[in-house]
């Protein structure tokens, strides 16, 4: 619960704490799911002052059974039932496998639902608890990723076909939460999709079970007072259109966090950083939802700090997921950049060039600069520029070498001890191996 305490806030935080003794789920999984559900429910009337939506899209990543992803969803649904249960029951959808299906669903919602003032209310929430079963088809559809991104951005989506003519959604109001295992992430979430911006609109969190409850123990016992308070917050948000703004101090704190986040992204390989490029707006959205839960249109410093704690936890989860995907998910330990570089050079006979290394490691979270910087710090690796012809830039060659032996320094005092024993007869040296080189470093 230590990490959860850093991000928990207000009535939702108290509600999650109150239900956790009767749930096996990860509290952060319950928190993430609840943020997605509540933000979706208020998305038709709540906006930030820069006219951005407040929907928070989350993905729970955990091993089958051990991650308790389904338990997190069940616990969250129980918790939110008295406040937004009717919305979830009427607007919950799943199984959207391509772009046209997504557009058709949003369009139908917009056409069939209007508010008392005559405006459309196209809210819906996708709860994909078997997301991996859809990802393969979604990736095949050339339109899905574009529509998906536009829905998060709240931008109008249009499509024209010969059969259906023009189909459009003026204001997408899509909530989203999904489940996936780390192995499925490695299989279906590609670097090209991340670089294209599809997945940096999601906040993935690694989840694990919190406990094992006895079979006959009560499950998901909802704290009554917090459940009623959540309903009151939902009713407040829906009374009228709300525009949420930072206080002056909160705006300053947000600027500090944005600078910190960007510094962190700059230090990461592009493949890893590409999943986190919308971190500042994610902080703003989560902070806005926390403000709405507090029934205020002013986003405070505490809202920003709690939002940052959650988003930073998601960043850590993403980094772990991407590195596991690069190294393969399984019982074998994750390899360091040094081990990955050494392995490729060894496979190429102890010497290779920068192009070969980059081809082998670019899909594993390493770029050219990081490869060279890492190799230059390795005792058993030589990095050398080699001119291969009269024209063109020199090639960078990486070569395995014998690491330098430690220097022995003898300090002579006034009194000398006994003469050292004569050195033994030299024996034929065994053929040096890479394993012996590693051992000499220990």
Molecular structure report:
- With 442 residues, this protein is of the alpha/beta class.
- Helix content is 49%, strand content 13%.
- The strands form 4 sheets. A 5-stranded parallel sheet has the order 3-4-7-2-8. The protein has a 3-stranded parallel sheet with strand order 1-9-10.
- The longest helix has 27 residues, at 301-327.
- It is globular.
Reconstruct the topology from this structure.
Elements: H1 2-7, H2 10-19, H3 27-41, E1 46-48, E2 58-61, H4 69-91, E3 92-93, H5 99-112, E4 124-128, H6 132-140, H7 144-153, E5 157-161, E6 165-169, E7 174-180, H8 182-188, H9 191-196, E8 203-206, H10 224-238, E9 242-246, H11 248-267, H12 270-273, H13 279-293, E10 298-299, H14 301-327, H15 337-347, E11 351-353, H16 354-361, H17 368-376, E12 381-386, E13 395-400, H18 434-439
Parallel strand pairs: 1-9, 2-7, 2-8, 3-4, 4-7, 9-10
Antiparallel strand pairs: 5-6, 11-13, 12-13
Helix pairs in contact: 2-3, 2-10, 3-4, 4-10, 5-7, 8-14, 11-13, 11-14, 13-14
């Amino acid at each position: 619960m230590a990490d959860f305490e850093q991000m928990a806030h207000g009535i939702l935080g108290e509600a999650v704490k109150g239900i956790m003794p009767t749930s096996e789920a990860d509290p952060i999984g319950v928190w993430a799911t609840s943020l997605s559900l509540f933000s979706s429910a208020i998305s038709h009337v709540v906006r930030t002052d820069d006219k951005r939506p407040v929907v928070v899209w989350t993905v729970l990543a955990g091993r089958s059974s051990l991650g308790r992803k389904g338990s997190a969803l069940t616990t969250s649904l129980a918790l939110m039932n008295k406040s937004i249960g009717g919305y979830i029951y009427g607007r919950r959808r799943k199984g959207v496998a391509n772009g046209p299906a997504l557009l058709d669903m949003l369009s139908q919602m917009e056409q069939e639902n209007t508010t008392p003032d005559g405006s459309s209310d196209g809210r819906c929430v996708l709860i994909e608890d078997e997301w991996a079963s859809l990802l393969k088809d979604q990736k095949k559809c050339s339109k899905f990723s574009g529509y998906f991104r536009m829905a998060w951005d709240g931008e109008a989506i249009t499509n024209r076909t010969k059969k259906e003519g023009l189909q459009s959604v003026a204001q997408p109001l899509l909530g989203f939460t999904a489940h996936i295992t780390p192995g499925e992430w490695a299989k279906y979430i590609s670097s090209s999709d991340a670089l294209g911006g599809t997945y940096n609109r999601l906040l993935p969190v690694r989840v694990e079970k919190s406990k094992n409850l006895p079979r006959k123990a009560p499950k998901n016992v909802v704290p009554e007072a917090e459940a009623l308070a959540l309903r009151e917050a939902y009713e407040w948000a829906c009374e009228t259109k709300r525009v949420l703004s930072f206080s002056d101090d909160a705006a300053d704190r947000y600027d500090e966090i944005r600078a910190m986040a960007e510094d962190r992204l700059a230090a990461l390989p592009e493949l890893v950083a590409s999943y986190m490029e919308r971190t500042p707006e994610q902080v703003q959205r989560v902070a806005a939802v926390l403000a709405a839960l507090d029934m205020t249109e002013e986003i405070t410093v505490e809202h920003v700090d709690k939002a940052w704690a959650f988003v930073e936890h998601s960043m850590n989860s993403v980094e772990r997921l991407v590195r596991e995907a690069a190294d393969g998910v399984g019982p074998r330990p994750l390899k360091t950049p040094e081990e990955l570089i050494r392995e490729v050079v060894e496979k190429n006979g102890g010497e290779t060039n920068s192009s070969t290394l980059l081809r082998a490691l670019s899909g594993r979270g390493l770029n050219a600069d990081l490869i060279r910087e890492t190799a230059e710090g390795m005792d058993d690796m030589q990095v050398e520029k080699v001119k291969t012809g009269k024209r063109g830039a020199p090639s960078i060659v990486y070569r395995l070498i014998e690491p330098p032996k430690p220097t022995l320094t003898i300090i002579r005092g006034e009194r000398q001890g006994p003469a050292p024993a004569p050195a033994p007869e030299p024996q034929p040296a065994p053929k040096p191996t890479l394993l012996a080189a590693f051992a000499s470093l220990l």
